[in-house]
TrEMBL record:
Keywords: Oxidoreductase. Coiled coil: none annotated. PANTHER family: GLYCINE OXIDASE, SARCOSINE DEHYDROGENASE-RELATED. Residues 14-59 form the FAD dependent oxidoreductase domain. It comes from the Bacteria. GO terms for molecular function: oxidoreductase activity. GO terms for cellular component: cytoplasm. This is D-amino acid dehydrogenase. Its EC number is 1.4.99.-. It comes from Tepidimonas thermarum. The gene is dadA. It is an enzyme of class 1 (oxidoreductase).
Length: 78
Protein backbone atom coordinates (compact mmCIF):
# COMPACT_ATOMS: atom_id res chain seq x y z
CA UNK A 1 0.00 0.00 0.00
CA UNK A 2 1.47 3.34 -0.98
CA UNK A 3 0.82 6.67 0.69
CA UNK A 4 -1.44 9.22 -1.00
CA UNK A 5 0.34 12.18 -2.57
CA UNK A 6 0.52 15.24 -0.29
CA UNK A 7 -1.72 17.26 -2.60
CA UNK A 8 -4.50 14.66 -2.55
CA UNK A 9 -7.08 14.12 0.20
CA UNK A 10 -8.32 10.67 1.09
CA UNK A 11 -11.66 10.29 2.86
CA UNK A 12 -12.06 7.21 5.03
CA UNK A 13 -15.39 6.36 6.67
CA UNK A 14 -16.49 3.49 8.84
CA UNK A 15 -19.28 2.45 11.15
CA UNK A 16 -18.81 2.57 14.90
CA UNK A 17 -19.49 -0.82 16.50
CA UNK A 18 -21.99 0.14 19.19
CA UNK A 19 -25.09 -1.36 20.76
CA UNK A 20 -28.57 0.21 21.12
CA UNK A 21 -27.88 1.07 24.78
CA UNK A 22 -24.33 2.29 24.00
CA UNK A 23 -22.75 -0.24 26.40
CA UNK A 24 -20.38 -2.98 25.24
CA UNK A 25 -21.34 -6.65 25.25
CA UNK A 26 -19.02 -8.68 27.47
CA UNK A 27 -19.60 -12.13 28.85
CA UNK A 28 -20.42 -15.71 27.91
CA UNK A 29 -22.59 -16.36 24.86
CA UNK A 30 -26.00 -17.49 26.12
CA UNK A 31 -26.44 -20.29 23.57
CA UNK A 32 -22.87 -21.40 22.83
CA UNK A 33 -20.79 -22.91 25.64
CA UNK A 34 -17.18 -21.77 25.59
CA UNK A 35 -17.83 -18.69 23.42
CA UNK A 36 -17.27 -15.30 25.06
CA UNK A 37 -18.19 -11.86 23.74
CA UNK A 38 -16.26 -8.60 24.05
CA UNK A 39 -17.48 -6.10 21.45
CA UNK A 40 -19.49 -2.91 20.93
CA UNK A 41 -17.10 -0.46 22.59
CA UNK A 42 -17.85 2.20 19.94
CA UNK A 43 -15.16 4.86 19.62
CA UNK A 44 -13.71 3.90 23.01
CA UNK A 45 -12.51 0.44 22.03
CA UNK A 46 -8.83 1.30 21.85
CA UNK A 47 -8.95 3.11 25.19
CA UNK A 48 -11.07 0.50 26.97
CA UNK A 49 -9.32 -2.51 25.41
CA UNK A 50 -6.95 -3.27 28.30
CA UNK A 51 -9.57 -3.03 31.06
CA UNK A 52 -12.20 -4.85 28.97
CA UNK A 53 -9.69 -7.62 28.31
CA UNK A 54 -8.90 -7.86 32.01
CA UNK A 55 -12.58 -8.01 32.94
CA UNK A 56 -13.25 -10.74 30.39
CA UNK A 57 -10.16 -12.70 31.47
CA UNK A 58 -11.34 -12.57 35.10
CA UNK A 59 -14.79 -13.82 34.10
CA UNK A 60 -13.37 -16.66 31.99
CA UNK A 61 -10.99 -17.69 34.77
CA UNK A 62 -13.76 -17.59 37.39
CA UNK A 63 -11.91 -14.88 39.33
CA UNK A 64 -13.71 -12.03 41.08
CA UNK A 65 -14.14 -9.37 38.38
CA UNK A 66 -12.53 -5.97 38.73
CA UNK A 67 -15.97 -4.31 38.26
CA UNK A 68 -19.53 -5.62 38.20
CA UNK A 69 -20.03 -7.11 34.70
CA UNK A 70 -23.85 -7.20 34.98
CA UNK A 71 -24.50 -4.09 32.83
CA UNK A 72 -22.53 -5.66 29.95
CA UNK A 73 -24.10 -9.14 29.89
CA UNK A 74 -25.17 -10.41 26.45
CA UNK A 75 -28.59 -11.58 27.76
CA UNK A 76 -29.81 -8.01 28.13
CA UNK A 77 -30.85 -8.07 24.46
CA UNK A 78 -32.96 -11.22 24.79
Amino acid sequence: MSAAPADRQVLVLGARPCTPDMLPVMGPAPRHAGLWFNFGHSHQGFTLGPVAGRLLADMIAGEPPLVDPTPYRPERFG
